[in-house]
Amino acid sequence: xxxxxxxxxxxxxxxxxxxxxxxxxxxxxxxxxxxxxxxxxxxxxxxxxxxxxxxxxxxxxxxxxxxxxxxxxxxxxxxxxxxxxxxxxxxxxxxxxxxxxxxxxxxxxxxxxxxxxxxxxxxxxxxxxxxxxxxxxxxxxxxxxxxxxxxxxxxxxxxxxxxxxxxxxxxxxxxxxxxxxxxxxxxxxxxxxxxxxxxxxxxxxxxxxxxxxxxxxxxxxxxxxxxxxxxxxxxxxxxxxxxxxxxxxxxxxxxxxxxxxxxxxxxxxxxxxxxxxxxxxxxxxxxxxxxxxxxxxxxxxxxxxxxxxxxxxxxxxxxxxxxxxxxxxxxxxxxx
Length: 336
Prior knowledge:
By secondary structure, this protein is mainly alpha-helical. Helix content is 58%, strand content 4%.
């Protein structure tokens, strides 16, 4: 299940920049991106839900997965610039790490024991009130673990491992096959068997960070299996593609999921010692970047579908971002 919302795309743009800054050492857009994150966290409110949570949830349409996208960039900023450094224009409690922690606390408020656990997707009680989307859980694992690595707050590690155990117990993921499903509906505790590349990607990335946090090699083994299944499913030719692209039925968000998949494969590449897996990931990153770049014209207007021809016309900046994300992911395995 996937809603087509601007918030998720905007958050992902900022994550791509943070990876770009990390891999290149460039500070060219540091202030602009930092200011955008401050703007989207309502300035001095220092909160992606602002001072009126209900308004932001219902009118702005910002849900748990949306704020987590922004927060992925925030924790990356904490890693780059120092967790206790201030975000542009802020003082007092306006640090990178405090915003990451606040987002974690607010999202975790939506954890309930329904169907054994998990975090609800929507913060708007009139829309999807019974759905615990996979991506909400998987973003949380990555966000909370990265924050733990900066703070050593043991509570973060505890709730992250509890959440991972729940997504296994709920059958949202099958560790034996490396399959990742879309989420759980709490009406009957049923699993939606839709599959999206970003779910595979974010779990792979989150498990990479969990391995770094705990030293537990089981997390790395799980990540390897899931990445292998993800590549077989979403990059059978070597070029990343969403399953809905072949039929031209993806919405704008869904077409962009493969950029997240590539980014997270890059994170696993930088963590795993498995040479065969590294080779497989490298092939996907290189093939995808080459195919993506081939869709761009001289003015950097690019297409979002890299394998089937551009069957849908989207604003160029969104499709061009996908290409940029693919190039940055590739840069990450060649620069570090």
